[in-house]
Design goal:
- Two copies of one chain form a homodimer.
- Chain A is built from nine helices and five strands, in the order H-H-E-H-H-E-H-H-H-E-H-E-H-E.
- By secondary structure, the first copy, chain A, is of the alpha+beta class.
- In chain A, strands 1-2-4-3 form a four-stranded antiparallel beta sheet, with helices on both faces.
- The longest helix of chain A has 25 residues.
- The radius of gyration of chain A is 19 Å and the shape is globular.
- Strand 1 of chain A pairs parallel with strand 5 of chain B, so a sheet runs across the interface.
Chain lengths: ~210, ~210
């Protein structure tokens, strides 16, 4: 455990992972549990996560990711995928989970479910994917913060061919599509970018206070 | 400082804030610095943050946020806004910052800048806003994780009229538009939702391992 600002200063988008250093089961469990607990709009969690450790599949994904070595060399490859066609049945599933978790009747939550359905019905399929993607990016942010806190390196990645990822991971037939990727593990001593000063705009540039 | 899983279990989308409990300057500085340090694609940080503590403006924003009391009652209202028309000049500004931070010449980073420009030029204005929004959601995720770690309550909010927010905050003329909101502060004892069990899908439902 460490100061969170120090942790965020320490982290960087790791370009070269040490392929011999793997997360412990405890570490990967912690990261995945943090992802699971991440907040989402309405709490509906319109994303899923695929954790790829299989080397052959990672080699294929690397080809679909412009050859970037993190995809094969990091300890774990975490692929965030979103539901393509969020529908009333997803809402019903979520409402059933809520009723079950809270020990109340699903009928008592009809108003809440109806509100979510109404919100979804006003969006095109593309907009629903986009909205689901934003929720996945919240979970990505949580993952990156927690990884930093635990001294685990990570590289968030948007540079890949989503269609090829979908095909390799067999997502389309499940109504899913690839959203964003995080590779996690431990930096290699050979990663010179680890020593680059962090580039961030100043608070004056980024933050405006209306007092 | 606390275990991160406990922190994520402790947090919830706070519905009723204690209007009398304010963040200390140290706490708000920490949250805003965490937002500033949040990662973004290419590192370009295509978002800005407006921190509203002014009560009159918050009252107006509350009207534009379906009357939700968090908007006025939380200690701080943090509005994430994105650039509407990310262009080559934004890339140049970022490359100049990078060169300055790292003590190298901007011309040596021309290839990197060109790659970012090419990526942006392939996107419509709508797609650029969407891409910028995803980066803002990463920062939102980082904010929510760090707030939980520090024992600070928060409520992420999508339920507001973005055009009305843009107008009240004078964003359009600055080429900005409202993306997502986080209210932060401290839960009220009166918030019954604080005692509701957290609803999350199981790891079995959310996470698939390809080993």
């Amino acid at each position: 455990m460490r100061n969170m600002i120090d942790a965020l200063q320490w982290r960087y988008a790791t370009k070269v992972f040490d392929a011999n250093k793997k997360l412990t089961a405890e570490q990967s469990d912690l990261l995945l549990e943090a992802v699971r607990l991440s907040p989402s709009s309405f709490g509906i969690q319109p994303w899923r996560v695929i954790v790829v450790t299989n080397p052959e599949i990672r080699e294929r994904l690397r080809q679909a990711g412009y050859g970037q070595p993190q995809i094969t060399d990091a300890s774990h490859l975490i692929v965030f995928v979103t539901k393509k066609n969020l529908s009333d049945s997803d809402v019903d599933e979520f409402i059933a989970l809520t009723a079950n978790t809270r020990g109340v009747s699903a009928s008592g939550l009809e108003g809440y479910g109806g509100m979510i359905k109404q919100s979804l019905s006003g969006k095109s399929e593309e907009k629903r994917i986009e909205w689901a993607s934003r929720q996945a990016y919240v979970a990505l942010g949580v993952l990156l913060a927690i990884a930093a806190h635990e001294g685990i390196d990570a590289c968030p990645m948007e540079g890949f061919d989503p269609s090829a990822f979908d095909e390799i991971l067999g997502l389309s037939e499940k109504g899913l599509t690839t959203c964003v990727v995080a590779t996690v593990g431990f930096r290699s001593e050979a990663d010179q970018t680890a020593r680059f000063p962090k580039v961030r705009f100043s608070q004056e540039e980024l933050i405006k206070k209306v007092e």
